[in-house]
Amino acid sequence: MRQELVARQLDEQIAGRFPVGRRLRVLDVGMGQGTQALRLARLGHQVTGVERDATMIAAARRALAGEPEGIRARVRLVEGDGHDTGVHFLPGGFDVVLCHGVLMYVEEPDPLVAGLARMLAPGGLLSLLVRNGDALAMRPGLSGDWAGALAAFDTTAYLPHPRTDSNGGTPIRLGLDVRADRLSKLTATLAGIAAPLHAWYGVRVFTDTAADDAGTPDDLETLLAVEERAGRTDPYRGVAALLHLCGVRG
């Protein structure tokens, strides 16, 4: 669900910014198992994936090994941290930079986001997927955890739902306290680093509390249509579990 929605939103932004058929230089920081990186490589783009978790990068290598040679040739995997982009790459070297499901593990995200923006060529697209700090009370509230909902109003820290979940990138580790980001704060951050917010979406508006073992619903396409529309429509997108923000390098 999450990966499909983010893919649709990302494709929409890419189509609106770049000529049809142009092969883009893509940097995916915190790529996890490489779902988005491989998808973009299949579309013809040159993709560099950065991941520090050894288990995740091993999974990405296995997935890449199963692709045709032409796709393998378009993907480069780098073991590293998102803070080290300036060590590995030259500024302005990418048309698109992805950072999905990573900021929630970073105590001070502004330096990381600024470093990512420096990797973009003028007019380049920065895609961030973050936990929505303005909607942390939704999950406990809908689950009937009134004390948890009350506490969530006044914090951006939270304990992840007890499951293993990639969030489009780095996996949630069970029992680890992480943090969320507020739309207003990230909007200000993006403006301050010359990559102002161009568009934003909500992701997982209605499905955040779904059971892990619920399986694939028979009406999956209808569910995707509902989530996709809610993710771009006020007031629904404002209470989504995740926010997908797209900034454009000035």
TrEMBL record:
Sorted UniProt keywords: Methyltransferase, S-adenosyl-L-methionine, Transferase
Domain Methyltransferase type: 27-127
GO biological process: methylation
Keyword check for Transcription regulation: no
Superkingdom per UniProt: Bacteria
CDD domains: AdoMet_MTases (cd02440)
Gene Ontology molecular-function annotations: S-adenosylmethionine-dependent methyltransferase activity
Signal peptide as annotated in the record: none
The protein, known as: Methyltransferase
